[in-house]
User: Fold this.
Amino acid sequence: MPRGNMPRQPSRSGRQEGARRVKGAQLKGAQALKGTQAKNAAARPTAGRAPLNAGKSTKAAVLRKTSASGYDPLAPERVRQIIAGLDHLYPGATCALTHRSAWELLVATILSAQCTDVRVNMVTPVLFEKYPTVQDFAALEPEQLEPDIRSTGFFRNKSKSVVGAARKVVADFGGNVPQTMEELLSLPGVARKTANVVLGTWFKKNEGIVVDTHVTRISRRLELTKQEDAKKIEEDLMRIIPRERWTDFSHEVIQHGRTFCVARGPKCADCALEKLCHAADKTWSTVEIHANARP
Assistant:
């Protein structure tokens, strides 16, 4: 190798000594600069200068002001106004499923799961003409019923539920649909929503509130509940809606969900409840919007 300056060899540790010295110098310089800035900031007058967290403080103040205004979404007067508005919009609202007996309503409600009432009403007249009584359904095998209800979706599970319910009604209840929540829930394919439909619509018994997709969406938009689970939503609604109104409230809210308060693009400008609604997804509003009021 020619005489002269020797090229620098890399450190065995993989770290250059020069780089370490520079880094240390930079660190000391940064610390010194930071200390100087802090002293200058302390000496600088604060008058007219907004704090760094001014935005957060303002937001908190707005929230406190909203709370202090006395707005209570569950206030009895507000709930009464909502009920009165629904009564005015949908007088005489009832279940949209076509039926002539408790059994037909039970079958139609089972078939309506994940299916529109319009489609169910197209299927059931032919179905009940073919099998007029609960005993006729009880004599079937689920596979025999499947072709008749295929268009309602999930037809295999629904066939098992309908035939199973028919057999239990015949065997345990003398062919008559039971009239208590506990007994209805013992039937295959019957959950609380279905039981509430049958008890409220046919037997005129207010044992609960039907919570479907419409009731879930609208009760959350109206801030009547913050829950997402159907059972918890029902419990919340039962605490604020008078018991004698439970069935009618369900029918009216469901009708409202089909007419105005649809899932996407609700028709807020035409809604009679608009001034009582602060939903975050409103398409038009004359009142304050609440970020947490959403479906």
Summary: Residues 72 and 78 are 8 Å apart (CA to CA).
